[in-house]
Amino acid sequence: MVLGLSAASVAVFLPAWMPPGRSLVGGDGDPNQSMWFLAWTPWAITHGHNPLLTSVLNAPTGVNLMWNSSALLLAILLWPVTAVFGVVTAYNTLVTLGIAVSAYCAYRVGRRLLDTHGAAICMGLAYGCCPFLIVQSPGHGKVLWAFMPPLLLLVLHDLLVVRRRRPWVLGIALGVLVAAQALVFEEGVALGMIAACAGLAVLAVSHRDRIRTAGGRVLQALPWSAAAFAIVAGGPIAVQFLGPNRVSGTVPGGNVYVADIANLVLPTPANWLAPHIATDISAKFSGNGTENGAYLGVVVIAIIAAVLVARWSRPLVRWSAFTGAILTVLSFGPQIHIAGHVSRIPLPWRVIEAVPILGSAYPARLFIYIDLLAALVIGIFIDAAIARIREGRRRRSTTAGLVIALAGVAMTFAPREPVATTAVTVPAYFTMAEGGARALPADSVALVAPFTHDGPSDSPMVWQAAAMMRYRMPEGYFVRLDDGTREDGPPPSATSRVMVDIEDGGGVSGVTAADRRAMTEELAMWHVTTVIVGPTDHRDHLEQFFRELLHNRGSTVGGVTTWRVGIRVGDA
Fold first, then answer.
1. In terms of C-beta density within 10 A (0-12 exposed, 13-18 middle, 19 or more buried), how is residue 7 classed?
2. Which of 117, 205, 250, 412 is buried most deeply by CB count within 10 Å?
3. 445 sits in which H/E element
């Protein structure tokens, strides 16, 4: 089963594997940042550095990586792949295995809650290939490791419904699960807490007579969960909240990255069956394409409706319906969005966004739990059809209806082909054995162009990883808060402003003498000893500027132009 799901996942991302190591799933931005994390963690561990903190970005201040989804656990698991095949192959492996692992975990839920093996397989496939994960795949590889929703359901089902295992055993399992999620994609912990509260509330209301017994088991399990979580993830969490360069406050985004009501029935360009009339509307959704994954489609909604009507007497169906409804409303965020239009109608998320930590989660990402419940209902639908066929009741019509329904689900969930890939090009300077970046003094500071301050400009992070972290940079793609507003990259500076302006076509003539003096002072303050201009827009203008600023022509080697910096504060 695992091999089959892995093969299916490879097929989805096949263009990135032809040949391996040259192209990555998705494009510039978060994938480049993820590749940097995959390289940084092994390097930090082998060189005696804390992998959760770094000063090779945003030098000399540094970055607290626990606030930047460093996916520590995945970097450690994929360490052998990174060491042998490089970060591009490691990242593509991360994306490919994420889909397979998620699908397999949902399959295990199906084996527990569904009647037939075939229905469990279909549940796993429906979850692993759900639109939420497909739209996330071009940018957020770690989000594809959506193992927590199905495994959380299994643990809570065992704790509160099946009750075969002792609470302390399940408590340890729950603590390890949450810790693993925190070390892969920390926001998933907040999403899991919200989803669990919704599911437990529905369970408590529908089984009020069992609250005392169930509550006792929960109270017995929680201390063991807390202990297991502290052992596995306590250290990293302490670094995050008590360590240097921590982010104080709630990272906003709750009214931007939300599920648009229209997205429930309208596909986005990520879906295979997406007519222009639908994508013209979905282009108006807030956020960006990698967060608009609330698509269920008419066929899946019709299947859900049919199961609710035919199987309402089944407790599992009622629980799934009410829990799914609550999570769907929460996924809409603090205000209703309809086809890109923001209404003034307040929603329950307003309460959650005021809660520290939980309020930093993106409401749209709750849809992974809704997709899990939708996959479960699809499995129940398949079970019912198979039962009718085995009983000989309307065998032909039931078989035909099942085939048509599954074909509709497959077309609804099918991703657009080919999957977007991007060729990864690293200038030879950063990999040369002699005369390149690896010959720079260890831990020296290099200013690299393009100036890395956000996703589209983060190619130098991949170059730094290729150079085996030989040098530090006063730049980088990371999260910080500025007066309560989320910002990417280092704080504003004359250097970043001038370089980005030139890269955007502003030219050199607009740079004032005051700008040059400020840059000179910043280079000295950051202890920059090397300037590197690599492939970027308006590279010739950047090279002209640095020739004038540093009073020498520089050296061209390995596809970049470099300067050794020997300036003093006050020089211009």
1. exposed
2. 412
3. strand 444-449
> Which pLDDT value is given to residue 568?
44
Query: What's the chain's length in residues?
Result: 572
Query: Is residue 422 situated within a structural domain?
Result: no
Is residue 293 located within the same domain as residue 441? no
Query: Is the pLDDT assigned to residue 570 strictly greater than 70?
Result: no
pTM of structure: 0.94
d(CA 27, CA 25): 7
What are the pLDDT digits (tens) for 478-517? 988 776 677 889 999 999 999 999 999 988 988 999 999 9
Residues 186 and 211 in one domain: yes
Residues 340 and 435 occupy one common structural domain:
no
CA nearest to 33, candidates 495, 564, 478: 478
Q: What is the rounded average pLDDT for all residues in the chain?
A: 92
Question: Are 374 and 521 found together in one domain?
Answer: no
Say how many domains are in the chain: 2
Which ranges constitute the DSSP H helices of 504-538? Answer: 513-525
For 304-357, the pLDDT digits (tens) are 999 999 999 999 999 999 999 999 999 999 999 999 999 888 999 999 988 888
> Which stretches of 47-144 are DSSP H helices?
72-77, 79-85, 87-113, 117-128, 131-136
Residue 421 lies inside a defined structural domain of this protein: no
Distances (CA, A) of 378 to 384, 431, 552: 10, 50, 68
β-strand partners of 481: 486
Does residue 166 share a domain with residue 313?
A: yes
User: Above 80 in pLDDT, residue 248?
Assistant: no
CB-based contacts of 396-401 (< 8 A; 24+ apart in sequence): none
- The range of the structural domain enclosing residue 551 comes to 428-564
